[in-house]
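Render ActR/PrrA/RegA family redox response regulator transcription factor in 3D.
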Amino acid sequence: MESSTATESQVYLGPDPSLLLVDDDAPFLRRLARAMESRGFKVEIAESVAEGIAKARAHPPKFAVVDLRLGDGNGLDVIEAIRKGREDTRVIVLTGYGNIATAVTAVKLGAVDYLSKPADADDVYAALTQRSGEKADVPENPMSADRVRWEHIQRVYEMCERNVSETARRLNMHRRTLQRILAKRAPR
């Protein structure tokens, strides 16, 4: 069974399995890198826009997964650098802050797919290896509305450096309500 999986991945990856992963969430980046290496990719990682641009210029990858919001800027700049070095790169955009305008811009710059965080390795792999013209499958178990809300609150909380008062202000929510939400487990 394993040999057929390896053969299938080589069919999709072709002779150049180079993959550039750009994300400032270091634990997520390392997990995704290991998962993609196990699927046959030759992975390079970058934790910033500057590092991503430098690696894209030095060795333009065949595949790329780029987070839109990075600590030192916008992932769209990395996509532009990749496109200047190589036109045939399959770029996937990852973001926890999705909206239509950034999706359109990413597609105009050449992204082939746009995934919301938290995306797992299977979602990323499917998007990278999807043949042009194929439509993505509808997820079997999409996140519930409660889970999406909880994920958004968690992202804003982290963005505010775990400051409850600032998070509550940005979410236009009472501080005590936010504290109760943060004390609970994540919904399914």
